[in-house]
């Protein structure tokens, strides 16, 4: 009860600093909300598409909008160990203790803090596994024992989870998912790339360093590399409460370092903040003290800096749909305008139409001829993609072999959990990145083949290419084998012999007869510990080898599936489309020629049908264009 009241008071304090947030919810009423201007513009495009036989293309764009609904934008938080990352997340959420904090390595896997919903209510958490059932619910209070790297529950689990989620109350950022990447094992690109890829929408990278000194070289290089994968970056300099005398100098030094290293980072927001004060403010019962703490923490300024790119990103699906809608109507508009010109006696594109018709008729006659060798182009791309898959697999295997060889003395149980989780994230990132490349090359090949006939591939074919690639990724995959290799008995025997020898030497020196027994016990125990660490290392190395093979098999399945679409399904569809395209070109030419020969009354009748259609298309395109300008102007404006 107290926690709920404190959170409510903290929310009221937060409102005084930056308003209601970008996704504040209106009170529920019985009346249906009026559609916004973007929806109205999109409906105009739909009406014009339907009137000009473009319903199927418009439906594909509408599905894109529908698929993007419900996706929550995300803030991916990264930072080196002991920089105040988890404390800062608690301050942003206004929920002390939600993210585990500590002076040493804390989190062993990524945790996503997701706004509560009907399907994921507050008080629940979810663990993701490689095996079925992949998602398993637990009470939120049990989550720390599954994510803390020193937790016996995590270390002793037969199958540790890959990552976790926790339902939280809506924060001042609105309905935004905050992803806390692991603080164990240093900065990991794999965790960040996986979080960004899964977000699918409006991701912001929040890099956390502290005011003890300027950003470290490893953190700087990590930020430079990862910033190329996201639209926006914000740097938070924490612990200004501990370094009150010189955090301003550190802030300015960080800006100079970023600008010198990469011009893209010269003007990113750099926000000084105290996560500790922000977290204390959320739990403070005294209103005056709470306001003072929250104002001094500067958390509100950090939230303001995060909201601006999140707003821009949230508009991208709408902007893309409006742009695609405009492009969809360009072809029927040209056709109508050409016919109107013909009815007026002026036809500029008549010769172009004849050339298109002749070209397509020639292709139709030679489609089965060896001069137009469809299979040769498919085979060329198959060789190209297979070589790329082999190269990626080799690089993945070499990377993990090098990583594990650095652990000459073996690895501990904690290190094993951290490495295995990072490897799982790395596999997911590499597979996703490669699949996107395979899909892009497959659709590019389709476009090239169709372009030779002056056509564009059907949307259904492009979607089938993507479906086949995803189907390959959903193929047989058993997850990473987290078993342990057997202990090498030679190492234990060696330890026993060494202990016996040392004990014998000490007996000769000290005349204590039990020294050999003590030596055997000590060295034997040390040998067992070392043998276990070496066994763990060998087990993880074997897992990396297996993962390398699985990575190659998955990508090769994707290539076979994608090129199967091109060489079979698409070829049949292309033949049909080509015949239809020739027919359409002939029909269009006949209509233009008929327009030139039409009587005055016939021309007036046909113009009366064409002019409203042209006006409808132009009006819809203009409305969509104005809405694009409105959204982009608002998106580029600074936050309130």
From TrEMBL:
Residues covered by the Dynamin N-terminal domain: 75-237
Residue stretches in coiled coil: 582-634
UniProt keyword Coiled coil, yes or no: yes
Keywords recorded for this protein, A-Z: Coiled coil, Membrane, Transmembrane, Transmembrane helix
Transmembrane domains' residue ranges: 502-531
One Pfam match: Dynamin_N
Name under which the protein is recorded: Dynamin N-terminal domain-containing protein
Source organism phylogeny: Bacteria, Bacillati, Actinomycetota, Actinomycetes, Micrococcales
């Amino acid at each position: 009860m107290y926690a709920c009241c404190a959170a409510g008071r903290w929310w009221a304090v937060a409102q005084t600093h930056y308003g209601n947030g970008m996704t504040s919810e209106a009170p529920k009423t019985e009346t249906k909300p009026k559609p916004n201007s973007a929806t109205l513009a999109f409906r105009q495009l739909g009406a014009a598409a339907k009137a000009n036989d473009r319903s199927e293309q418009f439906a594909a764009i509408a599905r894109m909008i529908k698929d993007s609904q419900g996706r929550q934008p995300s803030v991916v938080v990264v930072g080196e160990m002991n920089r105040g990352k988890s404390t800062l997340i608690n301050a942003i959420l206004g929920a002390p203790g939600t993210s585990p904090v500590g002076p040493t390595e804390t989190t062993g896997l990524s945790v996503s803090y997701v706004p509560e919903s009907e399907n994921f209510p507050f008080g629940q958490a979810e663990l993701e596994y490689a095996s079925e059932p992949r998602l398993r619910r637990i009470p939120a209070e049990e989550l720390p024992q599954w994510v803390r790297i020193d937790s016996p529950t995590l270390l002793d689990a037969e199958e540790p989870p890959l990552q976790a989620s926790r339902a939280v109350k809506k924060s001042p950022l609105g309905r935004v998912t905050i992803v806390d990447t692991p603080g164990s094992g240093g900065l990991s690109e794999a965790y960040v790339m996986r979080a960004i890829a899964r977000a699918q929408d409006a991701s912001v990278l929040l890099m956390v360093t502290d005011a003890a000194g300027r950003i470290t070289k490893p953190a700087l290089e990590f930020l430079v590399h990862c910033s190329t994968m996201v639209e926006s970056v914000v740097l938070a300099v924490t612990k200004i409460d501990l370094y009150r005398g010189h955090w301003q100098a550190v802030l300015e030094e960080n800006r100079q370092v970023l600008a010198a290293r990469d011009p893209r980072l010269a003007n990113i927001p750099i926000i000084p903040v105290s996560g500790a004060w922000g977290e204390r403010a959320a739990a403070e019962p005294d209103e005056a003290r709470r306001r003072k703490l929250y104002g001094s923490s500067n958390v509100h300024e950090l939230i303001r800096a995060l909201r601006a790119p999140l707003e821009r990103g949230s508009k991208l699906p709408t902007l893309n749909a409006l742009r695609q809608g405009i492009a969809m109507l360009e072809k029927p508009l040209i056709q109508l305008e050409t016919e109107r010109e013909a009815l007026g006696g002026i036809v500029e594109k008549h010769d172009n139409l004849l050339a298109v018709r002749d070209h397509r008729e020639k292709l139709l006659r030679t489609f089965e001829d060896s001069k137009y060798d469809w299979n040769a182009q498919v085979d060329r791309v198959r060789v190209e993609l297979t070589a790329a898959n082999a190269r990626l697999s080799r690089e993945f295997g070499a990377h993990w072999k090098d990583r594990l060889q650095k652990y000459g003395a073996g690895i501990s149980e904690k290190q094993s959990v951290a490495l295995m989780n990072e490897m799982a994230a790395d596999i997911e990132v590499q597979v996703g990145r490669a699949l996107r490349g395979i899909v892009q090359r497959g659709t590019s090949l389709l476009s090239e083949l169709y372009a030779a006939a002056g056509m564009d591939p059907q949307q259904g074919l492009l979607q089938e290419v993507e479906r086949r690639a995803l189907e390959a990724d959903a193929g047989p995959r058993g997850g990473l084998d987290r078993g342990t290799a057997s202990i090498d008995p030679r190492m234990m025997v060696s330890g026993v012999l060494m202990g016996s020898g040392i004990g014998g030497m000490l007996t000769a020196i000290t005349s204590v007869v039990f020294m050999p027994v003590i030596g055997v016990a000590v060295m034997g125990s040390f040998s067992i510990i070392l043998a276990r660490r070496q066994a763990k290392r060998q087990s993880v190395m074997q897992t990396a080898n297996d993962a390398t093979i699985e990575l190659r098999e998955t990508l090769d399945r994707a290539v076979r599936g994608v090129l199967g679409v091109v060489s079979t399904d698409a070829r049949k569809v292309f033949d049909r489309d080509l015949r239809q395209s020739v027919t359409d070109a002939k029909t269009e030419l006949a209509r233009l020629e008929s327009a030139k020969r039409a009587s005055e009354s016939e021309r007036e009748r046909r113009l009366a049908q064409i002019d409203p259609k042209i006006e409808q298309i132009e009006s819809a395109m203009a409305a969509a264009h104005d809405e694009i300008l409105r959204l982009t102007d608002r998106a580029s404006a600074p936050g309130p």
